[in-house]
Amino acid sequence: MTVATRASAPAGARRAPRTGRGLPAIGAADAAAVLFLVLLLIALIAPSLLARADPLAAADGQGLLAPSTAHWFGTDYLGRDVYTRVVHGARASLSASAVAVAVGLAGGLTLGVVSGYLGGVVDSVISRLIDVLLSVPGLLLSMVIVVSLGFGAVNAAIAVGISSIASFARVTRSGVLTLRSSGYVEAAQHQGASRLRTLAHHILPNAVGPVVSLIPLQFGGAIVWISSLSFLGFGAVPPSPEWGLQVSEGRQYLLSAPWLLLAPGVVIVLTVLSASHLQGLWEKIRRTSN
Amino acid sequence: MSTVSTEEVGVRPLPPVTTPPAIAVDRLSIGYAGRGRVARTIDDVSFTAPAGRTTALVGESGSGKTTIASAISGLLAENARWLGGSAALHGTDVSGLSARAWQALHGRILGYVPQDPLGSLDPLQTVGAHITESVRQAQALSTQDARRRARDLLETVHVADVDRKLRSHPHELSGGQLQRVLIAGALAGNPSVLIADEPTSALDATVQKRVLDLLEELREELDLSVLLITHDLSLAAERSDHVVVLRGGVVVEQGESDRVIAAPSSPYTRELFRDVPSLTPERYAASREQLRAHRDAVEDRSPAIAVSGLTKSFGGPSPALEGVDLSVRRGEIHALVGESGSGKTTLARIIAGLTSFDAGTVRVGDAERPRTPHVVNPDPGALQLVYQNPLAALDPRLRLVDLVAEPLRIRGTAKAAARASATDVLQRVRIPESLSSRRIGRLSGGQRQRVAIARALVLSPGVLVLDEPTSALDVTVQAQIVDLLFELRAENPDLTLVVISHDLGLVRQIADSATVLQRGQVVDHGRIEDIFGDATSEYTKRLIAAIPSPPQVLV
């Protein structure tokens, strides 16, 4: 799947280096990233379109087969098709990351706006809290949270989300701080706009931009973290297909059947790269449209 | 001086004149490449700048004056394309010279004084290091000699306390001093031509006058030829021997300054002259007379704004405002005049209820301002402030119609009704309806100011405070904005305007009364005729003297 993406992307992208009017220059890497993310989206919504087989179906005597035309990514120790499992694993991994980003975004926006807009003691308390969150290694923090919430895929996602609140809050707070003293916020209050109206109409909409562009980056990070938690046994439970879990299972066959580890590993790497690339593309579009 | 060029390579055949012109531009065309095509911005421009004289290149923003200056000085942007014609310095053809060839000319033949002093100096470098570097680029001197020369140069441009200034960093100097430093740097290699790109547009009137005096003095002493680039025609007429008027990349008029002032041949030049406030003090005389008659007929003589004993300190060594008294009659234009740092913006902000104050009383209409202002303005309909920079004071995300409708929406007017009123007001300030769904960033400077005024007008306030409403605009656009203000007064003769300005030419043209501030204190106040007729303070006299006044009066 990934091989096909890589090969087909540049051909389409090279044709339009600078089409001008309104659209930024789209490079080969941009096109590849978008295409890969489209494939991921299909895997998320309708995995059977990409992989017809049952991800849980084991086949006797078919264990640990090397990649071939029948099994693109080979098979695992139970004879399950790795390609099918990677495709079906997208749903668990991606939706968990989405939950994590949503939790981080909601918490970070709230904390950032409250701390930046109210200032004073509230700001000091929240800012120190953010400092603490940022000073503890994210994975460790997530593990502590999972342990206190209980094991499982959803809890792992929430834990990763809580760990990423700090980054969102920081960016939001700095945006709100700048805007709070900006000319047009003062001008709105000169027009008699209440604090709440100023916040809702002028501060939030203008502060949200940089926070939104943080989402793809945090999304990529969340995939890695959630996979790490699953790898360590804190997240998804076997036999359900999940990328981190698959890497963990493949670890024992690293020398005899490296594809078990490489296939989900490479997909994780590509997903993260595509997501962060999407952020760059987003920034470009934002700058052009301004 | 003028024999410099004969050894240079590529001398163009010139008519047998004794001294070739300092600058000769012949059928010059320049375009900028972008989006796959070249847009022509300079079209077939020809002019000469006589040696040993000052020539002014005049035009609105976008007229191409800076492009021409860059072409003459080898500083064209990378995407600029030389489409035809030639330019020569003292008879030396400089069209299409390589960067290396320019290096030999820069400093030695040509000095360039850039537009933005603070942006042109390295903030981490001392002034001394900057000038020394310029000296060493132009001349092969030892570090010692170069330093000595830097010191001499600063003395030449009359910087006081030279040794301390040499060790200073740019942010420690005032705008006028920075401009002098840049001039000193441009003079480092004893050039014979000095190009000054809007050297004074960011400066106060009195400082502007001193910098221009300096340029004139240097021209005589060092036998320089000066090319002065400016959008201010009155300044050009006063300070130059020869004027070239540009519009849209085309020369519309050129000639001896005296001749151009006395009998401008192009209608555009005449229009430019009409738009300069200091040249047409009587432009609004009829309208002002009418409004005065209206004011005198009104029985209610209670002031629109009354300030007494106002004192405000920001904690510095001297207060920002000290014992300020001020009274503005209803329906007047009152001007707050002073140089930067005189406290005029602080005073306006206190009147608008945006800044706290320490002592005194401030009344707007019947309401007294509290010493610590409300965060949220309780009565936006009484007074509206139009900020100096509309771009900073208007939300970049909102459409024009919503920006103007916002004050009404805040008061609870329904969306459709608020938008309808906003559209009306935008029409009154001549913003076409086709622009109403644009955002503020995509408008020109004059349009932005109109939108800011529209937003202030939508609540029909009794008082409008305008902070330097035209200081960032060309004279033509400035005249349009002032026309608009007088139209608004004609519609509502009771509208009181407080206008902050450092341009006394403009103040004389539009204001009924004025308050002159110097370092936070009122040094002159009263009716405008009295202030211009017999100003009591030296400061006011100096400000009045700094109004550019061309030698001949225009009819």
TrEMBL record, chain A:
Q: Name one GO cellular component term.
A: plasma membrane
Q: Name one GO biological process term.
A: transmembrane transport
Q: Where in the cell is it found?
A: Cell membrane
Under the heading InterPro entries, the entry gives: BP-dependent_transpt_permease (IPR050366), MetI-like (IPR000515), MetI-like_sf (IPR035906)
Cite the ABC transmembrane type-1 domain residue spans from the record.
90-279
Q: Which residues cross the membrane?
A: 25-46, 94-118, 138-163, 211-237, 257-278
Which Gene3D superfamilies does this chain map to? Answer: MetI-like
Q: Which UniProt keywords apply?
A: Cell membrane, Membrane, Transmembrane, Transmembrane helix, Transport
What kind of membrane protein is this, topologically? Multi-pass membrane protein
Its family?
Answer: Belongs to the binding-protein-dependent transport system permease family.
Name listed for the protein in its UniProt record:
ABC transporter permease
